[in-house]
Every structure is written in C-alpha cells, then in structure tokens.
Design brief:
binds flavin-adenine dinucleotide; 8-stranded mixed beta sheet; about 475 residues; 24 strands; 10 helices; 2 domains; Rieske Iron-sulfur Protein; D-Amino Acid Oxidase, Chain A, domain 2; binds FE2/S2 (inorganic) cluster; single chain; 9-stranded mixed beta sheet; alpha+beta; disordered C terminus
C-alpha cells in the first residue's frame, strides 16, 4: 500500500474526470487523475466540441419516459454544466465561438417531432424559438427550432484548458496508465492499481465512460453505442450548429469560422450496423445535403453510452461501500452533462450542498417504457452472445486486404485476425469475461465487443470499456512459426 494517501483518485481524463478533479482541488482536496491515454484520448477529445443545451430530441424522450420535474432538472443540470465550461473558456482565454444551435427536420415526417420537442422543452423551461421562415437556413427543411448563443470549441482546446486549470489548482495528472484493478475498502483507504503504480485514496471516482468496476452492472444498464464523425472544409458561409433529423437518425453539423466543417451521426450499437467506413460515407451524404461543396479530410468514430433511464447515472457506485463514484450514460451529449456530473460528484465529496437538480434526478422514477431500453440492451447482448457462435462455420482464413479483419474458426477456437500496415495478427475472438465475440471495426481498426461494448487493439490490448484483460494472442494462421505480437 502506498504511504501517500490522497483524498481522491479520479480515473479518466475526459470532461467528467477533469471537471471533477478541478472542482475537488479548488475545494481543498489532494487529487490525482490517472488516465489510460493522453488527456483527451477518450470520447470527449473525439467529440465535435458542441457545448450546447439543445440535445436533439432529448426533451421529447424525457417527456414520454419520466416526470416533468426530472425534465426541468435535466435542463437546470445542463445549464450549470454549460455555465461552468463557458466560464472556464472565457477565463482561460481559450479560443471558442458562439453559434446559434438549430434542430431541423430533414423530411416531412420529422416535422411532428420538431413540434413535440418544442413543447416538451418549453414545459421543462428551455425556451426554443420556432423558425418562422424556412429561408433562414440555406438548405431545404421541414421545420426548425433554434437556441441562441451556444458554444463551439476545438475539443483538444477544451480539454487542455480543463487540464491546465486542474493542474494549477494542484491536481497531478498521470497519463498513459491503465487502471487494471481497484481494491475498494469502504470507510478506509482504497488502492487503485495500474500496470505501473498503485495510488491510495479515501475515495475513487470512475470517470471512465462506463464504470470499469462493474458492480452495478452498468454495462448492461446502458447500451454502448458509437457515432461516426467526418470533418473537412467548405468554401461557403459556415452553418450554425445544426442537428438534422433524417431517415438514418440524426446528424449534427458544426462549422468553425475558419471553414472547418464537422458532422457526427450514424449512431449504432457497438459492433453492429456494418462497416464504419461506409457509415462515414452516409454521414458525409447527410452533410452534403446542407453543405454541398464539403471536402472531407478526416473521419473517425467514438463511443458513448445510452442509459435505460433517459437521464445518465451520476453518483455512488452500488456495492462500492460509498467509496466509489461514477458517471455514465450521456447519450451523445456529454459535454454539458459531463461538466454537470463533475459539479455533482465534487460537491458530494466536499460535503457541500447539492444543486437542487441533483437531488431531483437522484430520486427519479423510471417509467416502464424506459426500463425497456435496458432490457432491450440485455436481450440484444444475450442474443449476440449466442448468434456470435452460430454465425461461424470452420473456415480457412480468407485473404485479407490491408485494414481488414475477420473472425474465423480454427482448431484453437474462434480467432480474430487482422491485417494492418503489413502486420497480420491473431487474437482470441472471444473474451473470457462474458463470452462476447468481437467484431472488426474498419474505421478505427479495432476489435469491438457487441455484448459489453469493450474495444480492443489489434494486438488484443484493451482500448476502452469494462473488459478486465486483453484478448489472448493466438498463432497467426498460415504463419505458425510467428506468434502474434503482444
Ligand atoms: C463522435 C462523437 C462526437 C460527439 N460530439 C459531442 C458534442 O459535440 N457535444 C457533446 O456534448 N457530446 C458529444 N459527444 C458525446 C461526448 O463526447 C461524451 O458524452 C463525453 O465526452 C463523455 O465524457 P466522459 O468524461 O464520460 O468520457 P471520456 O471522454 O471517454 O473519458 C473517459 C476517460 O477514461 C479513461 N479510461 C477508461 N478506462 C480507463 C482505465 N481502465 N484506466 C485509466 N483510464 C481509463 C480514458 O482514457 C478517458 O480519458 C460525442 C460523442 C461521439 C462519440
Ligand atoms: S463481453 Fe465484451 S469483452 Fe467480453
């Protein structure tokens, strides 16, 4: 056990981890942040940097699945998260832009959803204006709402500003150390273990997207999903922030002043929906309907978590004996919600009064329809588990193109083989935790688990999610003398 006992170890350096650490340190706590990647390596750094309180059709969902006071609390929570980030960006002189945010129906059948969102948001106290003249936007649509004066920021700048402010407040940030175990000791000192070090603290905050200590089985109470982003340039006048509801779900487009346009869409459960490279093409198609002269320069995808309850989970981890807090389930809009999670967790740990919204949300009741989302995720997970095996007949390894991966059956069991660069690598296709069979992600060149949403690098090492260990290295078919690299 390390002799130096901290007040808090925060695991993860996304918006939740850095905001929590910053506020804890400002409140006088000694804090270390431990993060597997460099700051910004998670979803926050891969986001579009839209700090907005207009979250697609979130209020429509809140209205149908939870009480009105919870929707009002969601609004107040996001207002606090927005205010914290706005103040940070201004006080640190971090470059950012103010834009109006629009919600737009791309098809005639989306018009009713726009009206529903207008009503539901106004009942929760969020004043959205309905667009009276369709010519206010430079592309055809079937109704739009607008919320003025939201924020667009380069995500790496936002995270650097948070990291610098946290460091100045006394936080130590340890990058590139993956937490592999936590020895939780309620009312005592818990120990956080990485491959390289141990950190002792009275409290642990899991700001890891999904909690890596799965005591509340949050991997099954949330559906892990991915969104695909494309970015590039366009010559015309930029658009405001636009979330367009179309036939393939919603696409959010944002244009920075320098002619940089980014679009995010094609939300899909991890490991489903086919090639992410093809999904990037579909995001680009949706974007081109709004910005016809768009020229793509890059594409990527990232992960977030959809809770069975329409509002994410923030607070103490069940069966953590009061020693572990966590936050998860932001449903694609985690910048304001993540900052608010930091406010909530830090105030609890500093013994300060909770914001009223946190008390309301903490006591919320989930309607049956909403619980079905969790159930659906469980059922899907279970069926993937079984069909993952059934899909596969024993086969020879097919010829792979660079950037391709395939799951095949050998005498050793199910094997996942990929070709990246000029390196052929094989790992076990089946994890040892819950039996998920991984699926190739051709955009991120990773192995993704449709059961629990964990992701693995081509060498089997964990990239994200709750998986506790790497996928086992396997002999590469056709090259038995060359063991797969670890
Ligand atoms: C493509 C895309 C675009 C998006 N755009 C927007 C947007 O414009 N606006 C918006 O509001 N939301 C957006 N979102 C959603 C938003 O990015 C997320 O909701 C939010 O970033 C979640 O923050 P987080 O701090 O919980 O997680 P993350 O930012 O993912 O941080 C998790 C951290 O935990 C670390 N970690 C994980 N496991 C371990 C471990 N075992 N040991 C140590 N460290 C670990 C990771 O390295 C990382 O630092 C987008 C999401 C995607 C996928
Ligand atoms: S069930 Fe997902 S990695 Fe095991």
């Amino acid at each position: 056990m390390p002799s130096d006992v901290l007040d808090d170890v925060v695991v993860g350096a996304g918006v939740v981890g850095l905001t929590t650490a910053l506020l804890l340190a400002r409140g006088g706590h000694r804090v270390v942040v431990v993060t597997a990647e460099p700051v910004g390596g998670g979803s926050s750094g891969r986001s579009a940097g839209v700090v907005s309180q207009l979250h697609g059709t979130a209020y429509r969902r809140l209205q149908s699945e939870t009480a009105r006071k919870n929707a009002a609390a969601y609004r107040a929570m996001n207002a606090d998260g927005f205010a914290l980030l706005a103040e940070l960006l201004t006080s640190t002189g971090t470059a950012h832009e103010r834009h109006d945010a629009y919600l737009v129906a791309s098809r005639p059948d989306g018009a009713a959803r726009i009206d529903d969102e207008h009503l539901a948001a106004s009942r929760a106290g969020l004043r959205l204006e309905k667009l009276q003249r369709s010519s206010e936007l430079p592309f055809p649509h079937h109704g739009a709402l607008v919320l003025s004066d939201q924020i667009l920021v380069e995500p790496s700048r936002l995270l650097s500003a948070l990291a610098i402010a946290a460091t100045e407040a006394g936080v130590r940030i340890v990058e590139r150390e993956r937490v592999v175990d936590i020895r939780v000791r309620p009312h005592d000192v818990s120990v956080v273990e990485t491959g390289q070090n141990e950190y002792a603290a009275r409290h642990v905050v899991l700001a890891t997207g999904t909690p890596i200590l799965d005591r509340g089985l949050y991997a099954l109470k949330t559906a892990a999903f991915r969104m695909v982003a494309v970015t590039g340039t366009a010559s015309g006048p930029g658009l405001p922030i636009v979330t367009a509801i179309g036939s393939g779900g919603s696409t959010t487009v944002s244009s920075a002043g320098a002619g940089q346009v980014t679009a995010v869409g094609q939300a899909h459960a991890v490991g489903t929906g086919g090639s992410e490279l093809h999904q990037a093409d579909r995001v680009e198609e949706a974007l081109r309907r709004m910005v016809p002269d768009f020229e793509r320069t890059d594409a990527w995808s990232g992960q977030d978590y959809r809770p069975f309850n329409p509002i994410g989970f923030v607070g103490l981890l069940p069966r953590g004996g009061g020693a572990v807090s966590f936050a998860s389930g932001f449903d694609g809009w985690g910048l304001t919600q993540g900052a608010a999670a930091g406010i909530r967790i830090s105030r609890d740990l500093l013994g300060l009064e909770r914001p009223a919204w946190a008390t309301t949300i903490g006591r919320r009741f989930t309607r049956v329809r909403s619980q079905g989302v969790g159930l659906a995720a469980d059922v899907r997970a279970a069926s993937e588990l079984v069909s993952g095996f059934r899909r596969l007949a024993p086969t020879d390894l097919p010829l792979l193109r660079v950037g391709q991966g395939v799951v095949h059956r050998t005498d050793d069991g199910l094997v996942a083989t990929s070709l990246t660069g000029d390196v052929l690598r094989s790992v076990s296709a089946m994890c040892t935790r819950a039996g998920g069979v991984v699926v190739w992600n051709d955009l991120e060149t990773s192995w993704d688990c449709p059961v629990c949403g964990s992701r693995f690098d081509v060498d089997g090492s964990v990239l994200e999610g709750g998986a506790r260990g790497p996928l086992r290295a396997m002999p590469t078919p056709g090259a038995p003398e060359t063991p797969a690299r670890r």
